[in-house]
Specification:
The complex is a heterodimer of chains A (294) and B (283). Helices cover 40% and strands 24% of the residues of chain A. Chain A is an alpha/beta fold. Chain A folds into 2 domains: 144 residues, 3-Layer(aba) Sandwich (D-Maltodextrin-Binding Protein, domain 2), CATH 3.40.190; 101 residues, D-Maltodextrin-Binding Protein, domain 2, CATH 3.40.190. Chain A is globular and about 85 Å long. The longest helix of chain B is centred in the first third of the chain and has 32 residues. A two-stranded antiparallel ribbon of chain B has the order 1-2. Chain B is 75% helix and 4% strand. Chain B has a domain of 171 residues: MetI-like fold (Orthogonal Bundle), CATH 1.10.3720.10. In chain B, α2 packs across α11, α3 runs antiparallel to α10 and α5 packs across α7. Chain B has 12 helices and 2 strands. Classes of the chains: A alpha/beta (294), B mainly alpha (283).
Chain lengths: 294, 283
């Protein structure tokens, strides 16, 4: 009897150890605190490190990537959370500020901002002005009023319709390009209206001023979800392309930023942030510097 | 001494602006005559003209209404002025642009009775109409006060004399008071027109293709924000200068029959040419 209870005791103890071991291992992955990584922090140029706080510009009208919290002024969202984590890893304080989208890239050029994290699609045209570290992937989706909107299959269906976009976005470029294509094919052109921010563009569509909206896929999906039946997604998404963290050209931040992004992906915080905002479909695993595909 | 300091500062500023490569004067020159910029300029001028016509007409009407003995007439004018001066112009522009959300259709008929025709508001109120309405109605409220000041500046004796001659109120207003009030109304109206030229740039918020919007769309593509804003600013400056010259000639017209103009011209030239010894010549 003693032997049997001893065996039972041993089995229970072993099980307990295994359970503790498993629990310990998983907590090391998902709940371990993010810490500064000295090797990555050393890569940051001294001039930038001495600044202490870096300004991250974000146009907070692009939920869930960047939006304004209920307090009316704090920028929250995927980009804000990633920026905070990247800052910890690099040993820098990253302060996210709301800015006008079409002013961010010029602002990086002019030294007004240190980093731009505003769902920038990494394009060859933009790479002429700033450097990018890719960190996400998204396409462009179409959305419109839930009822009474035109049938849209893709870019080609836009001929003869009016589109609301945010000024400075790739959607604006694509819509203008499609306008030229429509006119060359002898069809009526696309009326492209560029609004100062995405909220204004959404208002234009919901009030019937413009017919169709174009925005990055996770953003369009979020708009439709949050609108409680006011909007609906239409047509097929296109042009899946990488998002990039925008940095002033050749200022030495690209390499440490890339290392920090890779670290976050390995450590698990990256996926945690994406899952928190429901955009894990856009996760990538191979970040690179200036990875534009178009 | 002060003149020399100012001259030097201006020279230093000019040299700095000319030699600072960041200004990109080549780009500025390139875009000054860009077709989309010129189209935007045309729309800005159209918007300014339309808004001022509505504003001045409305202003005169409201001012006369405010001076009416009928309390309902005077009161409604006051309410209009209070409301349209009391809300920001940008909010008014946004409101008119999105009125389709409140009234998707406008029907003409008897309230709660049969409707005769129905109009789709979205088609009726285009962004241009929305901008014109917002700017014009807002301007009407400000012009009302300017016109009222002008009317009040005309000696009461004029009105009394007109009444003694048996002229009715509106005839007096039209033939006697308003023409004399013009001398006081023109300078601030010129100011308002020049101001309207710049205020019209707010329509960029509703994606109406004015001068500022056209510049914004270009720099969204080329990232040359400062250069394009300089292009827009230069065009606004040129138009303002032309309007100022126009205002001078209009003021001269309404100053006919007064000594003030002659004396002002005299003083101007005397000061310019330092011919004080000859000051007593004309008199």
């Amino acid at each position: 009897m003693f032997r049997r209870s001893a065996g039972l005791l041993l089995a229970v103890a072993a099980l307990a150890l295994v359970v503790v071991g498993i629990a310990g291992a998983s907590s090391a992955n998902s709940t371990s605190k993010l810490k500064k990584q000295p090797k990555i922090a050393k890569m940051v140029p001294a001039k930038i490190r001495s600044k202490g706080t870096l300004v991250v510009a974000s146009d907070a009208t692009y939920a869930p990537m960047e939006l304004i919290a209920k307090d009316g002024h704090t920028v929250i969202g995927v980009d804000a959370d990633l920026a905070k984590d990247l800052g910890i890893v690099m040993g820098l304080k990253l302060k996210v500020e709301n800015a006008s989208f079409d002013g961010i890239i010029p602002g990086l050029k002019a030294g007004k901002y240190d980093i731009g994290m505003s769902s920038f699609t990494d394009t060859k045209a933009r790479q002429k002005v700033v450097d990018f570290v890719t960190y996400f992937s998204a396409g462009t989706s179409f959305y419109e009023k839930a009822s009474g909107g035109p049938a849209v299959k893709g870019l080609a269906s836009l001929c003869g319709k009016s589109v609301a976009v945010e000024n400075g976005t790739t959607e604006q470029t694509d819509a203008n390009g499609q306008n030229k294509k429509c006119k060359n094919a002898g069809k009526p052109g696309v009326t492209v209206k560029a609004y100062p921010d995405q909220n204004a563009a959404n208002l234009a569509i919901s009030s019937g001023r413009e017919q169709i909206g174009m925005a990055d896929s996770p953003v369009a999906a979020y708009i439709v979800k949050q609108s409680h039946g006011q909007f609906k997604l239409v047509g097929k998404s296109y042009g899946t392309a990488p998002y990039g963290i925008a940095l002033p050209k050749k200022n030495g931040m690209a390499k440490p930023m890339l290392a920090a992004v890779k670290y976050l992906m390995k450590q698990g915080s990256y996926l945690k942030v994406l899952k928190k905002w429901g955009v894990q479909k856009g996760a990538i695993s191979n970040p690179k510097i200036n990875g534009a595909t178009s | 001494m002060a003149g020399a300091v100012i001259a030097f500062l201006v020279y230093a500023l000019a040299v700095s602006m000319a030699t600072n490569a960041n200004f990109g004067w080549g780009t500025v020159r390139q875009y000054m005559t860009d077709p989309s910029i010129l189209r935007g300029l045309q729309l800005t001028l159209e918007l300014t003209a339309a808004a001022m016509v509505i504003g001045v007409a409305l202003g005169v009407l409201l001012a006369v209404m405010r001076l009416s003995p009928n309390p309902l007439v005077a009161g409604s004018a006051w309410v209009y002025i209070w409301f349209f001066r009391g809300t920001p112009v940008l909010v008014q522009i946004l409101f008119w642009n999105y009125i389709g959300a409140l009234y998707p259709h406008i029907s003409i008929g008897i309230p709660l009775g049969p409707q005769f025709t129905q109009v789709n508001v979205q088609a009726l109120i285009t962004p241009f109409i929305a901008g014109t309405l917002a700017l014009g109605l807002n301007e009407g409220a400000y012009m009302a006060e300017i016109v009222r000041a002008g009317i009040l500046s005309v000696d009461e004796g004029q009105t009394e004399a007109a009444q003694a001659l048996g002229m009715r109120r509106l005839l007096t207003m039209r033939r006697i008071v308003l023409p004399q009030a013009m001398r006081v109304i023109i300078p601030p109206t010129g100011n308002e027109t020049i101001s309207m030229l710049k205020t019209s740039s707010l329509v960029a918020f509703i994606a109406l293709g004015d001068l500022l919007y056209s510049a914004q769309v270009i720099y969204a593509r080329t990232y040359q924000t400062i250069q394009l804003l300089i292009v827009a600013s230069l065009w606004y400056l040129i138009c303002t200068t032309v309007l100022s010259i126009g205002q001078y000639f209009i003021e001269r017209h309404y100053a006919r029959g007064t000594r003030g103009r002659q004396k002002a011209m005299q003083d101007f030239w005397l000061n310019m040419t330092d011919l004080k010894p000859f000051a007593g010549f004309r008199r």
